[in-house]
């Protein structure tokens, strides 16, 4: 579900303390924020777009020109600035997550969106994605596994969270000099959390990621590979019984696309046998960011 705008230009102008004409000029000249339009043609800004504009205004207030601020943002600095760590900040983020979860489990989507807007005013984008939304998605999965919530609650809440995480990832800039990457769930996988988190990691590194998610037939996936010609492909597995099937498919794809590096990761990989690990070790990307970095660096070096 695409992100819908909810703030008109007058409201955003008041929030930011700048003229509406300035917002129009920034949109026209720099294209860093392109608000949606309603049926009447009026601009409607999303929470994410307001966050970006707030960041730009803060840079201008620090002495940057708007063009300099945009350049800094497009180089990725917009998403690298982390609020100073403190117990208070951590507790507030946890409390915000609790409130959002409570709203979602009560099917109060508007309240959850309003709380998310507050989170954006308090924290940077990556903290909201990982520490609040990502954490909530894991908690919902555990609640469902423990039969503390119904399938309906799990589906509604997970759908909201996955949608928001996916939308936010799209705001991360990509480096045109880095190769294209395809990210997808493994064979018969439906859980996307691990894939979303790894996609966030790749986008933070500057890679352009074609995110396919789950449910793509093998034949269709191979068609996409031929069209995109990615340098790397990543599969994520959460369910242990799907890991071997995914590794076998990765091996088959490697034979058909020998110049493409193919990696497999996710929680399920921790449960495969040592024999399977040895057989498919070249496909295993590891579990930590350091291991991911090493795997990617090695594959790019060999290409």
Automatic annotation (TrEMBL):
PROSITE patterns recorded: B12_BINDING, HTH_MERR_2
Keywords: DNA-binding, Transcription, Transcription regulation
Entries under CDD domains matching the protein: B12-binding_like, HTH_MlrA-CarA
Gene3D superfamilies, per database record: 1.10.1660.10, Cobalamin-binding domain, Methionine synthase domain
Residue stretches making up the B12-binding domain: 178-303
Domain of life per record: Bacteria
Domain HTH merR-type: start-end pairs: 6-75
Family annotation (PANTHER family): HTH-TYPE TRANSCRIPTIONAL REGULATOR MLRA-RELATED, REDOX-CYCLING DRUG-SENSING TRANSCRIPTIONAL ACTIVATOR SOXR
Protein name per its UniProtKB record: MerR family transcriptional regulator
Organism: Fictibacillus nanhaiensis
Lineage: Bacteria, Bacillati, Bacillota, Bacilli, Bacillales
